[in-house]
Amino acid sequence: MIQLTKRTEYGLIALVHLADAALTGRDGAFVSVREIAEHYPVPKRLLAEVLKDLARAELVESARGKDGGYTLRRQPDQITLAEVVAALEGRPSISSCETAERSPSSSNCGLEPVCPIRSPLHRVREGIWGLMERTTLRSLAQTSSLVQAGPLLQPKALT
């Protein structure tokens, strides 16, 4: 089963937080790792490492200092889930033959020439990847806001 790594999950949480900030009038404002870690129960050290990787991938901009932190480099509707996943863990695979396609030296499957599932599974992966390419941070942030607005879940106040 396709499963995102914790690093990617934490990266998405941070990016959705930054998108929420951009969509609620704090566009361009830098948000600290501390603020994100206080708002969501994620390890601050790992979150900082993930945000550095996202900065290297040019998805976020970083600034040092008292008012430093991170902000999105582009608008939330211009950053896709696929970009985030690719930056933090690469393109996902759902079968061992896809892994072999990326690293031919590791391929030792004798079924390859007659395999009945290789092509259909490739189409499934491409479909999943296409959905990730069409899913933007804005859509994730909007969904997040709807969930938080529910009567049982009250968001913590931003500091």
Describe this structure in words.
- Strands 1-2 form a two-stranded antiparallel sheet.
- Strand 1 (60-63) and strand 2 (69-72) form a beta hairpin.
- It has helices spanning 6-26, 33-39, 44-56, 81-89, 96-102, 118-134, 137-148; strands spanning 60-63, 69-72.
- Helix 1 (6-26) crosses helix 4 and helix 1 (6-26) packs across helix 7.
- It is mainly α.
Question: Would you summarize the structure shown here?
Answer:
The chain has 159 residues and is mainly alpha-helical. Helix content is 54%, strand content 5%.
Termini separation comes to: 38 Å
| Overall pLDDT metric | 81
Low-confidence stretches: 149-159
Q: Gyration radius, to the nearest Å?
A: 18 Å
What key phrases describe this protein's structure?
two-stranded antiparallel ribbon; elongated; 5% strand; mainly alpha; 159 residues; Arc Repressor Mutant, subunit A
Write the layout of secondary structure elements.
Blueprint (H helix, E strand, L loop, with lengths): L5 H21 L6 H7 L4 H13 L3 E4 L5 E4 L8 H9 L6 H7 L15 H17 L2 H12 L11
Antiparallel strand pairs: 1-2
Helix pairs in contact: 1-3, 1-4, 1-7, 2-3
